[in-house]
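Fold this sequence, please.
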Amino acid sequence: MIKCDSVLFDLDGTLWDTTAALCEVWQRAIADEPDARRELTREDIAGIMGMTSVQLMHKLFPRLSDERGAELFEKLCVVEDDYLREHGGILYEGLEETLKALSEKFPLAIISNCGPDYIPTFFDAHGLGKYFTDWECIGRTGLQKGENIRLVAERNSFKAPVYVGDTAMDREAAESAGVPFIFAAYGFGSVPGCPSLDRPSRLLDVLEP
């Protein structure tokens, strides 16, 4: 068992899967951008989950300048937020039941490397905001994920948080913030050598106040 006083989550690959939706809407969006036209696959989108906007634009569109990449990323954020707010993403097995049970024992928060409206879009699409105490992202603070983990913990006076994520980048962020990491093995990454979950509900078996 892992003792904690709060549970902090990554979003993509940990709470929901939006790869199919983003592949579709991003493909439509870049069709009108001659310098960024390419064939996107769901695997392409899965491969950039958890990255910052600069990192993912470099990977998907390496020929674009940082300035042009930032401009295109802003457009992609708008189209994805509009689509996901209406259609939602794929929630992982038993997610709402798990969040409800966890929120009765711990305050919950989301920290993600995403645009400023992406986490509110998740809340709006699925009605899950009621289970969370706080959230933060690089798009709102300009801070790296580890710094945002530390920020959320400090402003909520969390003394013993844990961070749940699905990539090695998530583990590195948790370690940089001095927070224990739990690997969501059902997500997009591979992170050996740490506590892992095959579905969200396993958190109910491994966490205790």
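Strands lie at 2-3, 6-9, 16-17, 90-91, 108-112, 134-137, 161-165, 181-184, 196-197, 207-208. The radius of gyration is 17 Å.
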